Amino acid sequence: MSRRFSFQIPRVFSAHLASAFFFVFLVFQIPCPVQASVEDDARISNRDGVMKARHGEWEGAIDAFTHARLADPSDDTALANLASAHNNYGVLLCREEKYAEGIASFEAARGQKPEDLEIRLNLLSALVMIHDVERVDREARGILALRPKDPQTLLKVANAFSRIEDDESARNLLERILAVEPNHPEALFCLGRLYYQQGNPGEARFYLQRAMEAQPGYASASAMLRRIGREDRVEKEFESESSMHFTLTFAGTVSHDWVRDLLDQFEDAYTKVGDLLGCYPSQRSQVIVYSHDDFRRVSSLPGWAGGLYDGKIRLPISPSLTRPEQARGAVFHEYCHHLVHILSSGNCPTWLNEGLAQYVEGVLPARARDILIAPPAPNPVSLRLMAAPFSGTVSRKLVERLYAQSLLIVSLLIEDRGMPSIQALLSALSHKNTLDQALAGAFETNLDALDDRLKHALE
Questions:
Q1: Average pLDDT of 13-21?
Q2: What DSSP element (H or E) covers 92?
Q3: What pLDDT shows up at residue 318?
Q4: 300 found inside a domain
Q5: 450: containing domain
Q6: In a domain, 425, yes or no
Q7: Beta partners for 241?
């Protein structure tokens, strides 16, 4: 079987909207009543709420603070504590991936303390996680009305817009920061990164260089500038053509008819892989097609690598490939990496990422099993050792086994519970759960059990 391999490099992000939510402190200075009476009812309930909150009994605390508030509507301490309890309960619910309940709790906290920025940012972060575009936009506007000129708030909201693929709003906010602080290094870097992702290296270089001037030694900006320099040496004479969902950059020696046919293959992948994973990006995805020699110059990957995803889809195309249909497997494989990156927020282990890409590409699990049981058939590598990229593996034979093992494990998972559970697994990873936690929630298993499952499948 002809094998092709690809490799994913996660994008580097900065200025993240907090995925670790903010806890809000309660007000503990509660005067103790000398005598229990009707007028002391609010104070007693308030104190009871504080005690429950100290023990993490958030529902009980919310009930107690609500009672205190009803007993004495003028008690600002009870109101502040009620908002804090709702917020902190929302944090715990979101950590358990109960986003609807968590969002409802944050909204209750916002209603009680609408000026509290940490509560508002928690709600915004939760809405981003469920990709509720309309409510993200509405909440972001509310936050901006509270802090219209605060650079850190603008940066966090810009990142929220970026995560829901609203690049225009993100860019506008970053430019607003620079209008106030022209040398704000993070805003300069984020704007440079945004232009790079959109396939505009000239503007990207301009803002990244300014970020370096504003903060000498800015490692992320320096690394991206080096990457753009490598790519420019190869791509400076390239041309571009776009379809509805893709922009394809290519050497001018390639015919435009051939490019349009290849874009059709990508549009087909947009629909079919999107249907499988439930993901349909709104921004155009960037695709760059190279000769094999140019691909090696840009990527510096081992000779076995047949593609690269690093925020852009990079494909080496052999001169022997005369029809774009022949690249269909590679197109589906690399586009799958793009969607997995979006769905997992770049937090997907290599074996799961490559297994899914091969499954989508159409590689048969039976062939993967044949590779793994072929003599001398050493024991499979533990999945705990397969989270890192395969690119450091020099041996093509070992690489082939790692890819085969990845495909077979993914096929077993899909056979068990189908693609909806794969989507749930990627979603759990995007929320920074450990792989064992994500597997437990989506498949009621863990890495050690999957290792055992694979050994039994190979017997």
A1: 41
A2: helix 76-95
A3: 74
A4: yes
A5: 347-459
A6: yes
A7: 248
Conformation bin of residue 432: beta by default, left when phi > 0, alpha when psi is -120 to 50: left
Q: How far apart are CA 372 and CA 405, in angstroms?
A: 7
Kind of pairing between the strands at 305-309 and 313-316:
antiparallel
DSSP state of 182: T
Predicted pLDDT at 83:
94
In a domain? residue 251: yes
**CB 439 within 8 Å of CB 425:** yes
Query: Looking at residue 268, which CATH number applies to its domain?
Result: 3.40.30.160
pLDDT higher than threshold 60 for residue 146: yes
Average pLDDT over every residue of 78-90: 93
In terms of domains, do 330 and 357 share one? no
Burial class (CB in 10 A: 0-12, 13-18, 19+), 303: exposed
Q: Please say whether the beta carbons of 347 and 430 come within 8 A.
A: yes
The reply to whether 286 and 372 lie within a common domain is: no
Identify the pLDDT of residue 22: 66
Indicate the angle between helix axes 419-430 and 396-417, nearest 10 degrees.
110
Q: Identify whether 262 is part of a domain.
A: yes
Which residues of 179-332 form beta strands (DSSP E)? 239-242, 246-250, 285-290, 305-309, 313-316
DSSP class of residue 308 equals: E
**441 and 351, same domain (yes or no):** yes
The answer to whether the beta carbons of residues 8 and 337 sit under 8 Å apart is: yes
pLDDT at position 30 is 43
Which of 251-255, 274-278, 450-454 is least confident? 251-255
Count of Cβ atoms closer than 10 Å to residue 100 Cβ: 10
Average pLDDT, the chain: 88
pTM of the shown model: 0.77
Residues 6+ apart with CB under 8 A from 388: 350
Same domain, yes or no: 382 and 416: yes
Burial category of 394 from C-beta neighbours within 10 Å (exposed 0-12, middle 13-18, buried 19 and up): exposed
Model pLDDT for residues 297-306, shown as the tens digit of each residue: 888 777 777 7
Place of tokens 């817009």: 161
**pLDDT score of 252:** 77
